[in-house]
Each structure stands twice: as C-alpha cells, then as structure tokens.
Amino acid sequence: MTKADLFVERSATKLQQLARRAAQRGDGIGVWLSGELNEDAAFLRKLKPSLIAARARGERPAASQAPPPPPPPQPARPKPKARQRNGGGPSPLLVVGVAFAAGILVAKVIDWRGHAHPRD
C-alpha cells in the first residue's frame, strides 16, 4: 500500500469511528448520521489511488480488505422528559383572548377616567 492508500484508509476508519459514536447517541439524528457516515467511509475506500490506477489500466482490482460495516444500532429508549411540551399549560387561543379582553378593559377605564376630568 502506498502512503496515499494508507491516508485514505485512516480517513475511512475515522469516519466509521465517528459513525459509531453518532449511533451511540440513540436519537434519530445520530442513527441517520451514522448510516450516512458509514456510506461515506465505504465510498472513500473506493477512492484509493491504487484502486483508481488499477481501474484505469483496465484491471479488476482485488476486493478491498475493508472491515464490514457495523450492524445498525438499536434505537434507545427515549429519555423521560421533566414536562411535556404538548398539552401542558393553557391553550394559546385562550391566552390571546384573555389578553385582548384585558386590553379592551384597560382602554375603557382610561377613556372613562378621561371624561371624569375634562381639560376644557
């Protein structure tokens, strides 16, 4: 193997390690990212300069000694949340309605007090 082949192999190995760490997160993004990084590592191994040169000469390159990709990770249980965001608290429409009614009430009080003491 040439130095360039070793560099490509080390890079692909680092991508697979990164994919393994992303899969250990256990959330949807980590699993998705893990699959993408594993595909990138496999593609990077196909870009070894010696394999490209062999394909350019018309030879069929030997099978790569790349380790098989790790099995897909099992999804972890979701972490319990302290408070659920959906369904907790008052309805947003109720809050807007109460604020609107309070605004009208404040405007009426200010207008009423203005008539009590005219400036004329």
Explain the overall architecture.
Helices cover 62% and strands 0% of the residues. It starts with a helix and ends with a helix. It contains four helices and no strands. Helix 1 runs antiparallel to helix 2. By secondary structure, it is mainly α.
Number of helices: 4
Strand segment tally:
0
- Rg, rounded, reads 32 Å
Q: Which stretches are poorly predicted, pLDDT < 50 over at least 5 residues?
A: none
In whole angstroms, the N-to-C terminal distance is 99 Å
Q: Kindly state the mean pLDDT as a whole number?
A: 80
Strand content: under 5%
Shape: rod-shaped
User: What string gives the helices and strands in order?
Assistant: HHHH
Fraction in helix? 55-70%
Helix-strand category: mainly alpha
In short:
This protein is mostly helical. Helix content is 62%, strand content 0%.
Topology record:
Blueprint: H1 3-25, H2 28-46, H3 49-56, H4 92-116
Helix pairs in contact: 1-2
Q: What are the key terms here?
A:
120 residues; mainly alpha; rod-shaped; single chain; 4 helices; 0% strand
